[in-house]
Amino acid sequence: MERELALMILSDYERNQTFLNIALNHAFQVQKKDFSKELVTALVYGTIQHRLMLEYQLEPSVKGKRIKLFERMVLLMSMYEHLYMNMPDYAIVNEAVRIVKKKRGRQAASFVNAILRNSFEHKRSLDDLKKEERLSIETSHPLWMVKMFIKQYGFKTCEKILHANNEVPLKSARVNTLKISREALLEKDHRFIASSHSEDCVFYQGGTIAESEAFKNGWVTIQDESSQLVGRFLSPDKGSRVLDMCCAPGSKTTHLSAIMDNTGSIDAYDLYAHKIHLVEDNAKRLGVTNLTTHVGDSTDIHCFEGEYDYILLDGPCSGLGVLARKPEIRYHDSNAMDEIILLQKKLLENAYTLCKNKGIIVYSTCTLNKKENEKQVEAFIKAHPDMHILEERTVLPYELHSDGFYMCRLRKD
Ligand SMILES: C[S@@+](CC[C@H](N)C(=O)[O-])C[C@H]1O[C@@H](n2cnc3c(N)ncnc32)[C@H](O)[C@@H]1O
């Protein structure tokens, strides 16, 4: 049951080039029978997370053969179970053959059977590969990304980042202090434990956070710990005027409201109407009342120029800090990054125009690509000598077992 469902999700992902969480949520919603969500999630995410290693191991047995999409996903998932799930080989092969026979017929099943038996018997060594290629296959990150991280962070740090990207992310949430204190939440539900690194963060040891009473009551919202650091990095004063230029789905906007205790005002923009609805739903659940949402292009907002006390620009980015949560991002086309860098530059330019004198801007991204982070800010302050860096921080994914994040606080004066 779980394996069939996981294969359906993997095939949907592969065919439609969708995001894994979207494919997963869709399948979970339509599935009526009882099944282990945890096992399906582990099979799907694990297969995509380790894809390069799985393909490397299968390559000698499949070389030159045309393989249909469904069979390809069966081979990858079975190889994942073989290498990473501690399952006996006969059980993996029997299940794969049963499923392929049911969906594709006898011939396809015997094809899969032969390939799996052959590749399970002959584990391929990585010893002859160059250092960078070996790291690329071993951790399943494309070679261009490995080279980029080595260049920007050095080999040792790069190695730690890549391994951290293959860990299972913690179930983190932010306590919504508009409704409850962290102490009171911990008292009410012992499945939450406090993080020692930041004041609003808790980790959940129960099932799904979104199904907990605490979530339904608006006491917590799902947010990674490093993302929570961004709101505190801006720390707008109570009663101040705040602009959030790229707000959806609203994790940081609603955090800013909590920090301001619902005082002052927040204008929150996003380019897409359907995403603004998510922000509004979150704001309602969390009891946020100082927020006005707008659908709009933040490179092109002209009202209230020079009037905002605080601006958050948590803009679009390549997402290379969240590869544990969204493993599929690592296989995206690297050329898209140049376009994003240009968009970030335009957004920063407009942040400058909208910020008042002595105002504060926090620029943040969930990527570790320095061209989108340090280099972007460097070019920005060069163009605007009245902007000064107050503090700059990069959180690497292995430091707090969180997403990787970059944040920079700047003042205009
Ligand atoms: C990293 S996400 C923001 C996450 C959000 N700050 C949070 O914490 O929930 C970037 C957002 O920027 C939005 N975006 C992209 N280009 C934009 C633009 N030109 N103007 C406004 N929003 C934009 C995207 O739709 C996306 O929702």
From TrEMBL:
Residues 145-413 form the SAM-dependent MTase RsmB/NOP-type domain. It is found in: Cytoplasm. It comes from the Bacteria. It holds the Pfam family RsmF-B_ferredox. GO terms for molecular function: RNA binding; rRNA methyltransferase activity. One of its GO terms (cellular component) is cytoplasm. Specifically methylates the cytosine at position 967 (m5C967) of 16S rRNA. This is 16S rRNA (cytosine(967)-C(5))-methyltransferase.
